Amino acid sequence: MFRTQICDILNIEYPIILGGMVWVGRADLVAAVSDAGGLGVLGAGGMTVEDIEKDSEIIKAKTSKPFGLNVPLARPDADELINAAIDCGASVISTSAGSPKKYTALIKDRGAKAMHVVSAAKFAKKCEEAGLDIIVAEGFEAGGHNGFDEITTMALTPQVASSVSTPVVSAGGIADGRGFVAALALGAQGVQIGTRFMASAEAAAHQNVKDAVVNMEDSGTAITGRTTGGPARCLKNKLTDMIVAEEAKGTPPDKLMEMIGGGRSITACLDGDCDEGSIYCGQIGGSITSIKTAGEIIADIVSEAKQVMESLNSL
Amino acid sequence: MFRTQICDILNIEYPIILGGMVWVGRADLVAAVSDAGGLGVLGAGGMTVEDIEKDSEIIKAKTSKPFGLNVPLARPDADELINAAIDCGASVISTSAGSPKKYTALIKDRGAKAMHVVSAAKFAKKCEEAGLDIIVAEGFEAGGHNGFDEITTMALTPQVASSVSTPVVSAGGIADGRGFVAALALGAQGVQIGTRFMASAEAAAHQNVKDAVVNMEDSGTAITGRTTGGPARCLKNKLTDMIVAEEAKGTPPDKLMEMIGGGRSITACLDGDCDEGSIYCGQIGGSITSIKTAGEIIADIVSEAKQVMESLNSL
Q1: Distances (CA, A) of A160 to A79, A151, B7, B191
Q2: B229 CA to chain A: closest CA distance, Å?
């Protein structure tokens, strides 16, 4: 059921990929997603080479199935992280927020599969030229950094799928079987899911963060960084209220960065301060009403997707 | 094929509703959509009672099938427009940008069906309390005015569908059979489509506007009015560049309104000036590559939707 080209390329059972989540997507969650038939992906944003080595050992002790690593290309040591991950057994490297050309050769020469995240069809075409194995089309509703063009999953997925022949994975706004089937209908061959897995038993996020996702509504996120640091979707809280208000006032980026300071993701994800910390979170978080294990999440997506198909076929 | 509750409520063949489009959705387009089995809806934003009477005569001369009227509730004479439309045979009234409670009793007492457009689940609950027959969940990718919460179709549709038992129609980002099936998978029982029908033979828009939609890319729209007049998605042009730049500079709303002046939709839609005029347009416009008749658009959506279902069933 729901076996696509993505399953063959990544050697997985279901075309469901864990989005790379800084401080959240660590060994336990990655192992659980992979073991349940999806692709677990380490969120290397805040990780060192040593972290990757340690986490990979834990993953390999828990499952023999494939896993991957996501590297934001803003990291100046991205090549070291990629090499370390492949040395440790990662078979897929996902890159984002930078040129897809930069590391594709390195990744593919070392025998791993290369995925890149895009926010518009023009970038997808560049990925195809660069020889990427999989293109992730991530919409504006997704948590974390997203594109300046603000193109949504519903608009982006079919336009990317029409513009390239490389297999496309849809990301942003997907948390259940409804979104999974919708993404496949739009022309994707798989989905990448972040927020739903943030509210999982195995996620490294603080319990307060998981509870905040369970309690949020559809309108519970905000874009910060429209004028400072690049747009990023976060769970609305005291911090985002402050940032949005300062940006609206025209506070200069450097002054605002000073006010925000560093480590705000750690404040939330590790220390559990959901007022003063930064929590990357997608709009679909409003549909999440309980914390489940990653295995339950994947099983539920697949079983709900079957029901959705039955219901569509009955029309 | 694809017969849902929406078809029974509206007495139509396919659950495809024409979005209300000011200066664009006039008699010829409304008649063509209805005659092809969807629901044609007059975009009454710029219309007088006399316009409604005239257009209704044309529609009824062209088709015996049901048609509707969309009224932005910003119009102080909304009740007159609604009464005129029902007098003239409209069987469905769609309202937007205001309280769903205000005219529901009037519409239903007169025997017409009442639909209201919402941008977040909290508003959908209010529609259900108000007794609306159909709730239209319209995402951030849609052309024209949209909600301050910027919730996208992919995130909004399932969250609205889960929060009410009233039938839901999905709008924003839908232009073909892929989007149609995706919307149904997300829990909607139908779709509302604007931009795709703007680039139709029967649309009242100037040929230059239709050509501009055919030539745009997925990143070809911008939100204006984030600080002035309320957010609205438009085709990017000289006018939107100016507005976005002034808003970023913090130009006061009244001064910016003075710079913009009135009638900018007329400048584009009727006079064909696509630089200085305002063209409401959704992100999915980038997927539109030719002008078709409304009948062809509907037939193509249905036939592509069948192909999408075959492809999903083969997985």
Answers
A1: 27, 11, 32, 22
A2: 16
Tell me, yes or no, if B315 comes closer than 8 A to chain A by beta carbon: yes
Name the percent of chain B lying above pLDDT 70.
100
Q: pLDDT for A237-254, tens place per residue?
A: 999 999 999 998 889 999
Interchain CB distance below 8 Å, A154 and B154: yes
What's the pLDDT band for B60 if we cut at 50, 70, 90?
A: very high
Confidence at residue B100, expressed as pLDDT on a 0 to 100 scale: 87
Looking at per-residue pLDDT, the higher value among B248 and A55 belongs to A55
pLDDT at B227 over 90: no
Using one digit for the tens of pLDDT, what is the confidence trace for A34-61? 999 999 999 999 999 999 999 999 999 9
| Contact with chain B for residue A197, Cβ under 8 A | no
Distance between alpha carbon A109 and the CA centroid of its chain, in Å?
A: 25
Task: Give the SS3 label for residue B144.
Answer: strand
CA-to-CA distance for A155 and B284, rounded, in angstroms?
Answer: 5
Q: Are B75 and B45 in contact (CB under 8 A)?
A: yes
Q: Give the span between the Cα atoms of B117 and B124, in whole angstroms.
A: 8
Q: Does A122 touch chain B (CB under 8 A)?
A: yes
Residues 154-183 (B) with a CB less than 8 A from some CB of A = 154-156, 158-159, 162, 172-174, 176, 178-179, 181-183
- Scored b (16 or more CB within 10 A) or e, A93-113 reads bbbbbbebeebbebbbeeebb
Q: Are the Cβ atoms of A309 and B312 closer than 8 angstroms? A: yes
pLDDT tens digit sequence for A177-192: 999 999 999 999 999 9
**Do the Cβ atoms of B2 and A315 come within 8 Å?**
yes
The pTM assigned to this predicted structure is 0.98
Domains of chain B: 5-204+290-313 (3.20.20.70), 207-284 (no CATH)
**Residue A116 bridge partners (DSSP):** A95, A135
**Quick one: average pLDDT of A11-26?**
97
Q: Report the C-alpha gap between A70 and A52 in whole angstroms.
A: 11
- Interface check for A300 against chain B (CB to CB < 8 A): the answer is no
Q: Quick check: B198 contacting A, CB < 8 Å?
A: no
**Distance (Å) from the alpha carbon of B57 to chain A's nearest alpha carbon:** 34
User: What local confidence, expressed as pLDDT, does residue A79 receive?
Assistant: 95
Residues of A in Cβ contact (< 8 Å) with B185: 178, 181-182, 185, 308, 312
CA-closest candidate to residue B46, choices B265, B279, B284: B265
pLDDT at A100: 87
Establish if B248 touches chain A: CB-CB under 8 angstroms: yes
From chain A, the residues in CB contact with B253 under 8 A are: none
Whether B172 sits inside 8 A of A152 (CB atoms) is: yes
Under DSSP, is residue B155 helix (H, G, I), strand (E, B) or coil?
A: helix
pLDDT single digits (tens) A260-274: 998 999 999 999 999
